[in-house]
Design brief:
Blueprint: H1 3-10, H2 20-27, E1 36-38, E2 43-46, H3 52-64, E3 73-75, E4 78-80, H4 86-93, E5 103-107, H5 113-118, E6 125-129, H6 133-146, E7 151-154, E8 168-174, H7 183-193, E9 194-205, E10 214-215, E11 230-231, H8 233-243, E12 245-255, H9 272-275, E13 276-277, E14 280-284, E15 292-300
Parallel strand pairs: 2-3, 5-6, 5-8, 6-7, 8-9
Antiparallel strand pairs: 1-2, 3-4, 9-15, 10-11, 12-15, 13-14
Helix pairs in contact: 7-8
The chain binds S-adenosylmethionine (SAM).
């Protein structure tokens, strides 16, 4: 797999007609020489010197880049109240991570919120992989000022990870597996990118029960169109085994609630409350069990 050729070809995605105006605004943003990145639940850019014109230009750019799914961020005083409180997922996983000096990748990294948070643990490098030119543009906005030296973002997908033969100590693949029509192939691709003994953090929707079975939505699940398989935890463990992982550790199981996912000013359209049956929040609008996530850690053999 010629990753460089794929990366090069995908640069043209930044010229798509909905993305090009955002890139133009990004390229015209003023320098803010004392901009400082402050890590914490809200990933914050701060400056003493930025004048109101510079702050307004950043806010305008951020507003043009809606929807902001992951966050929160604070850009020189403008609070981006993203649809997801991604700090909750990060803080749940953080006690199980030790990224000091590690070569890390976040597969399906969205706008890079977790990549910035990972800097708290001083990794050697973090590669973010996500095929979305919009989310890359959001990342580029933050990193225009954060200038984090150890972060890199490529518009690649999980299917390209096999091209990073034995590169990473730690991989994250959060909220992506249920979007894959062949989850075992996706897991094998992740495994190939890990060094021997390397670790994978993963979360996915799951259904309750011990049997090695999956829910296959007839069309949408929770109004999301491209959800293919929702496994029991047992099925997920067997997928990981078949893909070449060992030592399957369940870190947590969580029912997604409105404290984590909700409609805000920074997204268009609907959010969790609209996806559940108004008469029975235990069920999605399609009648399936309401979203629950399992967080796991597993290792390449
Ligand atoms: C539900 S979001 C999860 C985002 C983030 N990892 C999290 O857990 O909060 C799914 C992400 O997967 C990305 N994605 C879509 N196709 C992908 C692919 N083929 N490989 C990797 N990521 C993909 C989407 O752009 C989106 O950012």
């Amino acid at each position: 797999m010629d990753l460089q050729a794929i990366i090069k070809a995908r640069e043209s995605w930044l010229n798509w007609k909905n993305i090009h105006p955002l890139r133009a605004v990004l390229s015209e943003l003023p320098d803010i020489p004392d901009a400082e990145l402050i890590l914490g639940d809200t990933v914050t850019l701060r400056s003493e010197m930025a004048d109101s014109k510079a702050r307004a230009a950043v806010t305008r750019a951020a507003r043009m880049m809606k929807p902001w799914r992951k966050g929160p961020f604070d850009l020189f005083g403008t609070y981006i109240d993203s649809e997801w409180r991604s700090d909750k997922k990060f803080n749940l996983l953080a006690p199980f991570m030790d990224l000091e000096g590690k070569t890390v990748a976040d597969v399906g990294c969205n706008n890079g919120y977790y990549m910035f948070r990972m800097l708290e643990q001083n990794p050697k490098s973090v590669l973010g992989v996500d095929p979305s030119p919009l989310f890359k543009t959001q990342f580029d906005l933050i990193n225009r000022y954060a200038q984090a030296p150890h972060l890199r973002y490529e518009m690649l997908g999980i299917e390209h990870m096999a091209g990073f033969e034995q590169t990473f100590d730690t991989l994250f693949c959060l909220g992506v597996l249920y979007h894959r029509s062949d989850p075992i192939t996706a897991l094998k691709s992740l495994k190939s990118a890990l060094k021997r003994g390397g670790e994978l953090f993963l979360d996915t929707f799951y259904i309750e029960g011990d049997a090695p079975v999956c829910l296959v939505p007839e069309s949408t699940y929770s109004k999301i169109p491209n959800i293919h398989f929702i496994p029991t935890v047992t099925s997920l463990e067997y997928w990981c085994k078949r893909a070449g992982f060992e030592k399957f550790e369940v870190l947590a199981t969580v029912r997604t609630g409105p404290q984590e996912q909700r409609k805000t000013d920074w997204i268009e359209g609907q959010s969790l409350a609209d996806f559940l049956d108004p008469k029975n929040p235990e069920r999605t609008v399609e009648g399936y069990p309401a979203p629950r996530r399992v967080y796991i850690k597993t290792y390449r053999k």
